[in-house]
Specification:
disordered C terminus; single chain; about 15% strand; alpha/beta; two-stranded antiparallel sheet
Length: about 250
């Protein structure tokens, strides 16, 4: 898997001076384009003008629960059957670690470009939300926040040891978790268990359950994400001196 071919992420430059970045990670079988409409909606409201959005594309990898056929994925999944424990069995740690390194590299590139780590949020949906939790909480730099939608905690049986080895820099970083109460793909109970585990480990997590929502997103949830991003990445004001947005 070290020879994976990765397409460049989909980028939405800040419309004002670039002072913050959101990396948002799609789920299994999707691409970064799947969340482009949500980003475009947030940009139209002009509440996150200083934020650059990065929407990565997962490489095509064999997925066991898809009969071994290739599809966009951040790591292999053995079974998706609605069982609360199925996703936690036979976890693809090498694949998870490879994606973790990729997201840490995206974070570092933003830092190298002049964006402070505490002006960076990482988030995602489903498999992407699981990766945002894992990559965000194991990052060795302090982030502004983490968003995990319809997702769960990866490598949960050894997670406490993993974050301790990484330095646990983001122990108090705000985490916004969200789940539909009718989710039978990443079961709602698994989302709740993941939230409870994070709270027991002392993390600054909140979980919101959306009534009537399945394994998807809804307008109320998207509004709540926007509010979280606005709170964590408030505008700093100013521009780049020539009236043009920075990339």
């Amino acid at each position: 898997m070290s020879s994976l071919v990765r397409a460049p992420p989909l980028l939405f430059p800040a419309t004002a001076r670039h002072t913050a970045t959101v990396i948002f990670i799609h789920g299994l079988g999707d691409t970064g384009h799947g969340w482009a409409s949500a980003v475009e909606n947030w940009r139209r409201r002009q509440r996150l003008d200083e934020v650059k959005f990065i929407l990565p594309h997962a490489p095509n990898i064999p997925i066991t629960c898809n009969g071994g056929f290739r599809m966009p994925g951040w790591y292999d999944i053995h079974t998706i059957d609605g069982n609360v424990e199925s996703l936690r069995k036979h976890e693809d740690e090498p694949g998870i670690r490879l994606s973790q390194a990729y997201f840490h590299d995206l974070i570092q590139k933003e830092i190298d470009a002049g964006i402070p780590s505490d002006r960076i949020v990482i988030g995602g949906f489903s498999q992407g939300g699981a990766m945002s939790l894992f990559a965000g909480l194991t990052a060795k730099v302090k982030l502004a926040g983490i968003v995990a939608l319809s997702s769960y905690l990866l490598l949960s049986l050894k997670f406490a040891d993993i974050v301790a080895e990484a330095g646990n820099v983001n122990k108090d970083t705000p985490i916004f978790m969200a789940h539909g109460d009718l989710d039978r793909v990443v079961h709602t109970e698994l989302g709740k268990k993941s939230y409870q585990m994070l709270k027991e480990l002392g993390y600054n997590a909140e979980l919101k359950i959306y009534e009537g929502m399945q394994h998807s997103a809804c307008l109320e949830e998207l509004d709540d994400i926007e509010a979280f991003l606005k709170e964590r990445l408030p505008p700093l004001g100013g521009n780049d001196g020539d009236g043009k947005p920075e990339l």
